[in-house]
Amino acid sequence: MSESMAGRRACEGARIGVCVLGCLLLAPSGGLAFLPNFWSRVLTLSWDSYTHQYMTEQALLNITLDTLVRMPAGREGAELGRGFWRAVGEVAQANAAMDFLSSTRSDPVYHFDSERVEGAADMLRQFWLQTLLSIRARDYQGARHSLGRLFHSLQDFYSHSNWVEMGQKSVYLHLLHPEHPAIPLASEDTPTCAECSSTTCRNNILLSQHPPLLTTGYFSTHPAKPAGKCSHGGLLDSSRHQGARGGINKDSTSPLFSPHHYLHGDAARLATAATVAVLEDLRDAVGTASFLRLLSVRQQPALVFVMDTTGSMFEEITAARIRAFSIIHARAKTAQQPGTYLLVPFHDPAVGPVYETEDPEQFMRYLEGLTALGGGDEPEMCLSAVQLALTHSPPLSEIFVFTDASPKDAHLYSAVEALTLEKQSKVSFLLTEDRSFSGTDRGMRKRRESLSPNRFSLYSSLSSISGGLAIFTTNSDIHRVSTIIQDNIAASKVTLSHMESNSVSTHFPFRVDSAVNNVTLHLTGILKHCVLTSPSGQSQSLLDRPGSLAHLQSFQGLYRVSLLPPIKPGQWRLSADAEGPITLNAIGDSSVDFLYYFAVVANGTHPGLARVEGSPVAGVPTFLVLAVTGLPPNEEASFSHVTLLGASGEILLKVPLNSSSSSSAGKELVGGMASVPREPFCVRLSGKDGRGNRLERVATEMIQPTHVQIQVLSAPHLVPGNVSTVSFDVMNHGPARHFTLTATDDRGFLTQKGPHRLSVGERGSLRGKVEVRTPGGTDPGSAVTLTLTVRALDTADSNYAVVHLIVIPQDVFPPSCSPMRVEATCPPVCHQASWTVSLAVTDRGHSGLAALQLSKGHGVLTLHLGQEGKPWQQEGKGRDTEGEGRQGSEEPHLLEGEPPLNITGWGGGMPLHVRYTASCCTPRAELIAWDGEGNVRHCHFTSSQQGATDKTSNGAGSIKVALLTLISGLLGARLIM
Question: Which of 90, 142, 175, 144 shows the shortest CA–CA distance to 780?
Fold first, then answer.
């Protein structure tokens, strides 16, 4: 969550670290980057190492403060807000996830391993483009994910390459600015390291050429390390035993994991400087306002309405207008950044369009033009509208739904529930049902003769899981009931307690501390008797008469209780007798709050705590990671434990937390659970302030432990006019069972939604995939939210995965050349023998390979399809770009000086295999490859190499020109590149 929040560099959780070290040392071989997060230092016993998390958070914090200083308001109101720390956490977690996800953790292109420098630089530029496009589309959550991935690869360069050993003192600009000079790369036939037989390797890099050559360490066995090349090194790298033995990584301060550990600090400083430089470029590219919005800096909470617009909803729409005007008027007096105003109208069958703005005056004008027309019979498309609201609103939002109809789209419930939990947002329903009404005059909704009394149960369930409220009121009371909107979306609002009860007689305890002001209680249900008791024992019967403890407002379906000042800190209690279910939500004004996530130890390829996506698995060891936000700089608060509470407030489990010193940013805490409870629960944090008084905060969403998981294996970018595949595993942690899997998205791009029936064996897994077809003409930067939900047929077990996808342009990246095999035994008399090299030429974009040219080399280049040895036939295509030349089934080949060979008929997206053969007297050659968008790759190969190297052209079709032209056109902003 936030290592910088903790304000410490000491051992976190050393008691657990010693226990897991043995597991780590016995783990299968795998790769290391800079250590992923704070827990990695425990697992590797390198307490003073800089981690990806630490560098990322420090850079984000420093650039944010620098940005605020530049603004007219300066540093006034130093608290950055809970949303900021959540945004920072998202970037840091996306960074660390590169070391945990099966699709990225072992791929050298994501980590600058195995001399894949140009391919890794291409990937960096792709992440940069995705970040810019997402910000342009106001998909800030998607932008944070791509930015975190960019930071990971960029930071790895300084640890995995010989940049520091070359004596470089500044960042390598060429990585993200292709117009800057590039350092020549060591060729495949150039030895780069000497033998090193100790854990610490000094002066083992051989490169002494002028100009100096750039190299990176090989890792493990994929790809195989050529003789004489450098290894990544350390205990988890199996290639360290192959010549040249040893390694060069600077990931940590531990000699066991980092042979160049003595340069760790230098590498970390350059990696941090490079991270800061990216953020400065990003701020210049998108502007200060969008940059601060990306990080949710001091943002007002979003005002999100989901509005039924059928003819019976006149009073509700009027109430929403009144409440929005009151909120906007109050916000005009604050200095905080503008918030999001969002409205999703719906009826049957129409849903939307989504109206979103940061201008409160425009929002009011839109509300003024909203009318209640048509419709009249149940049900309506309510859940579709809630899904859109969750997709478009920021995390931690409060969403208010106005309707008097049941949902027609109940099949979307699982997807909406998943989005609610993933974003930690609350959904409250204001249901205006007059149970005595049965007529149809004056535009009121026509009643069917028989309506189920449980038709609103999905609304009640969703509000319960998210920590919101379901209020059954009437048209005459909706204006007053809507005050809960204004109560709940104040910037400093925190939850003190959230409990539900089906008992006739109920006791609701809640604690008020000295950091809380303006305490308000919301109760839903029908009360017969209600007594409030203060910490000193003073009582007030709320339903009988006014008193000195609180003021009661009673509406149809809602009781609003305001504690009167002075509010005494300590344990309060509300005792109530009710007719039917009752829900209590206690809120107050305070800057002190917390964020949290669940994690499991990853001690295989990359040691650290890997965040659990979706719901945690019941019955298995799991960590709870928390970050406390908003503590005053001088507040010496301490937090001892969290309590997992059931729906009625019962205690399920107490989880002790490791101690932590406080800082102005907050504090990070970790608690280990030997077993996650099976029952649904919410999380309550407990501690003490600097004066020894108790502090408590509650996160109201109900966590649903489960025995099934969905692990997303690939989340590709989307290209207009193409089909992309998202693959995933369904993992069953229980007995053999049948499941249903459903996929939904917010744009209707899925080719099949399901539900699909699956059978998964005991503690087994099943691989699946869904296809997303992006229509031609879809704007680059468009965001698509894909939700996968899996549910057991025989139990309540279910889980979810939310995948954020982005539409990118057709193709801005050049083809690539991958080495296959070199066959060469060249004698001293060169003309007596020949040599052969095999290459695979591919295009990662969707424009496809377009042309090849042998620019240097006196040999012959032959083209093959699929398996080597099978010649490629291009039906009806000519030899060059004009369509002239060789036809039919003859094997296409290229000679030096011939015009480019047109291969636009090449299809299938498969690698194009080429074989070059030449006399040993001409040991070098160069192949040029173009794709359909004009991007160019220069591929160099020699008779003595074990593979091929490639280099991106700086010509008009290069990545530089493509990126600059594309981005300037899409964003209309000045880029420093």
Answer: 142
